[in-house]
Each structure stands twice: as C-alpha cells, then as structure tokens.
Amino acid sequence: MKKNESYTDQARRQFISKVVAGAGLAVAPGVVLHQVAQAKPADQPASNKVRWGILINTNKCATGCTDCVSACQEEHAWGAASENEAHSSKLQKAQWIRKVKVTDKQTGYVMSLPMMCQHCKNPPCVDVCPTGASMKRADGIVLVDRHICIGCRYCMLACPYKARSFIHEELHDQSVNAPRGMGTVEACNMCVKRVDNDGIPACVEACNQAEHNAMLFGDLKDPNSDISIELKQHGGEQIREDLGLDTGVRYQGI
Question: How many domains are there within the chain?
Fold first, then answer.
C-alpha cells in the first residue's frame, strides 16, 4: 500500500480492476452487465412489519409550487439551497426531488407533480449495484451507503425515474445530519432519520404546513393508517406500473 493511500481507496481500486478484467464489464451504451450479484442490505433494526410510503394527490399539487423541493434542499443541504454547490453547472446539480409538468397532448390538460426515488419493492438500482451500496431496508426505504459506493453509476442507468444524482465536485461545510461525498451517488432517502424518530419526511411536512395537503405519508401495510384508508377509498396509481417495481410512492389524479 502506498504511504498516502487509505485502505478504502486501495480496496476500491482493486475491486474495479477485478470487475472490469474478470467479469468483462464496460461502461458503454448497450453493453449488458454480466455476473453482477444482487446487493443485500446490511443488518439493521428496521422491521418488515411496516412499509413506508407516500401518496401524492396531483389535483392538489399546484403548478409552480416548490415547497416540497425547498424543504428537501434545506433538510439535506443540496441544490439551490446549498452554497456548496453554487459553482456547479446546472446539469450537475443534485436533484433529490424535482417538480415535473405533465401535459395531456389530446386534451391539453396540464398537471404538476413531484418526482423522487419511488422506493420500489423490487428496486432495479439495488439489482445492478456491484458493491451493495444501493440497498433496500426491511421497511421498504431505498438508500445509498456512500462509504462503499464506488461511483460506477449503474444504479443511475437502471432507475426509470431519473431519481438519482452523482456528485461531481468536492463539497465543503456540509450538514452534519446529511453528509455527502464527491464521487458518490445520492437520492431521496425518505428522510430516514426523521422516520426513525417517529417523524415524517420534510417534503410532506412542508406541503401540510402550506395547507396544500397534497402529500400523505404512512405505513402501507397497516390497513388502518391514513394512507391505506385513502388508497382503499380513492385509489392510487404507480408511475410505470408496467415495470412491476411495486413503488412505495403512489399518485392520485394521473
């Protein structure tokens, strides 16, 4: 090991060399990844007795409103709310959550909706991750372990929702509650620290405080939870349900 090289850096370098040489992987369009084992989450106290989810009513989501985005930026110190990223190009800025405008070409009807990690039951990002950095907790929350993420970005290619971002540049003065790192992938984590402390995601809280009430958070496995009752009474749709991912984020009015 070189004098100034950490064990983690050496391990990452050796891993990449072995994967490229031994498995025949290449970062090129159209190349199929072979012999990539499915990542597994590390042992953790999260329970599979619950599955956290978010229900979004697009009929209540106003075009031009970005309260949910601003709340996420403030909570996790990314994007426009982070002075650390002021020097980044627009295309390289993180997007844990973004507002999307959808137009029905036949009727001209326009709707606005927030798009973030959909916290799939069968997440493709987890399937393609070669290190286990992309993982799904027992309670359904999909996360990225930045300590073992090697920045290969296979998960970004696999995500059909374009919900993940790659940090290209060094960041300074980061939030102690939301550490981030250059050369790693990140995405919405459903404000896992809040959830583990019996709270709700920042985006949902901001939407409620603004009295829009377009977002509802809760346990999808509990038939008596507000989110389950609302889904049973008025239904909810998955974006790209045809992919069979069983998303934890559902929408009404799409």
Answer: 1
Query: What is the CA angle 248-249-251, rounded to 5?
Result: 140
Task: Answer yes or no: is 19 within a domain.
Answer: no
What is the separation, in whole angstroms, between the first and last Cα of the chain? Answer: 55
Q: What is the CATH number of the domain that holds 141?
A: 3.30.70.20
Residue type, 243: L
3-class DSSP assignment, residue 198: coil
In a domain, 2, yes or no: no
Torsion, CA 209, CA 213, CA 219, CA 221, rounded to 10? 170
Q: Helices 202-209 and 67-76 sit at what angle, rounded to 10 degrees? A: 140
> 113: helix, coil or strand?
strand
- Give 132's contacts (C-beta < 8 A, 6+ positions apart): 39, 40, 41, 42, 145, 148
Asked whether residue 21 is assigned to any structural domain, the reply reads: no
Measured between alpha carbons, how far is 202 from 112 in angstroms, rounded to an integer? 19
pLDDT of residue 25: 41
Q: Give residue 184's identity as a one-letter amino acid code.
A: T
Sequential DSSP letters for 144-191: E-TTT-----HHHHH-TT--EEE--S---S--TTS---TT-EEE--TT
Host domain of residue 80 = 47-252
Query: Tokens 């402390």 correspond to what residue?
Result: 197
Indicate whether 234 belongs to any domain.
Answer: yes
Question: 């930026």: which residue's tokens?
Answer: 73
pLDDT of residue 93: 74
What pLDDT is attached to residue 83?
A: 54
Per run of 10 residues, the mean pLDDT along the chain (length 254 residues) is 48 47 41 36 70 96 92 86 53 82 88 95 97 96 94 96 90 76 93 93 96 96 96 96 97 93
